[in-house]
Write a structure and sequence with these properties.
By secondary structure, this protein is an alpha+beta fold. It is built from eight helices and nine strands. 63% of the residues lie in helices and 14% in strands.
Length: 346
């Protein structure tokens, strides 16, 4: 693939060479006899066009015209185009004299303006092509940069989840080691299953909800060893939701928040309920857990990293098309709801 500089030279040389060839072909077809001097004259004219446009490019780059707004850029381009056209007209005069093609009417104001307008058309066309290419290139670079930044942010957000989750899981296992070694071994097996599943999606921006659901079930199985009958679960999963693409560990993190900040603080324990539904082409995920979502200093805070992480990931992936909310329900339950549109991966 050609780099930008090489591409410029290929188009610059090729374009003005083509211009010369077309000029010569048109001259030959419109005249029964055309002299070699006339062909040389047209070739040199194209060479002058090459030099003038290259000079304009150098000047524009030095003056940073590409960064100017359109109202400031357009008058400069039009002035440069007309100046180059007039310059080209007068550059032709010494050449025509040396080749014996001098016309005594060459200094007629009508001839000067008329031919200069013709040259202006070609120079203006060159300018349009040049600026259009550069603007599109800059636009593509900005898109790639934005995508790269999002990828980095998503990777950073996702990398926060594994240590956060592993720390809590190891705390759960540590509490069982002395109290019930057999359950501790079972818990370690559950943790191994979870880590095996998460490693598969480590490099993915998105994962199937069906795979995420397996991680959630494994996590709740692990926690049920510690909480026993204090942790009760209920799943109502729409079969159509399993093929939706969701951020890895997003649902598991929200369920973990429900256990840590809700059920673990209740003596009698409580419920974790997970319900999904696909409607109007969007996936709705509703997580209900026993407990309350408390306000601190006028701001509702609960879940810390998990909720902030989820909000940021949804915004990066879906923009304003995703919905995320958390609220208290009257029956001492906290409802966390996510609605996301379908997103296709390649």
């Amino acid at each position: 693939m050609l780099n930008k500089s090489r591409l410029y030279w290929v188009l610059q040389i090729g374009g003005w060479t083509l211009y010369a060839v077309v000029q010569i072909v048109v001259a030959i077809s419109s005249s029964e006899a055309i002299s070699a001097k006339r062909i040389i004259f047209l070739a040199y004219e194209s060479f002058f066009c090459f030099l003038l446009t290259h000079g304009l490019r150098t000047y524009m780059n030095n003056k940073r015209w590409l960064s100017l707004s359109m109202p400031r850029l357009l008058p400069r381009v039009l002035s440069a185009v007309f100046l180059m056209s007039v310059t080209l007209y007068f550059l032709r005069i010494p050449l025509s004299i040396s080749l014996g093609l001098f016309n005594k009417n060459v200094f007629d104001i009508g001839n000067i303006l008329g031919l200069s307008w013709v040259y202006s058309f070609f120079f203006f066309t060159w300018s349009i092509v040049y600026f259009t290419y550069n603007y599109f290139e800059r636009y593509n670079k900005s898109l790639k940069l934005e995508a790269s930044i999002k990828e980095i942010e998503l990777s950073n957000l996702k990398s926060q989840l594994n240590p956060h989750f592993i720390f809590n899981a190891l705390n759960s296992i540590r509490a069982l080691v002395d109290e019930n070694p057999d359950k501790a071994k079972m818990a370690i097996n559950q943790l191994a299953n979870i880590l095996r599943n998460t490693l598969v999606t480590e490099k993915k921006r998105l994962t199937r909800f069906g795979d995420e659901l397996k991680v959630v079930r494994d996590y709740l199985s692990l926690e049920s060893i510690r909480f026993e009958e204090r942790l009760r679960t209920d799943f109502d999963i729409d079969p159509a939701s399993k093929d939706f693409m969701v951020p890895p560990l997003m649902v598991q993190t929200l369920v973990e928040n429900g256990v840590k900040h809700g059920i673990s603080k209740l003596t009698e324990g409580g419920w974790i309920q997970l319900k999904t539904k696909v409607a109007h082409g969007k996936l709705s995920i509703r997580i209900r857990n026993s407990g309350q979502y408390h306000a601190v200093n006028g701001h509702k805070r609960r879940g810390g990293l998990g909720l902030v992480n989820t909000s940021q990931r949804l915004k990066l992936l879906y923009g304003e098309d995703a919905y995320f909310a958390i609220s208290n329900e009257r029956d001492n339950f906290v409802l966390t709801e996510i609605i996301i549109p379908p997103i296709h991966t390649t």
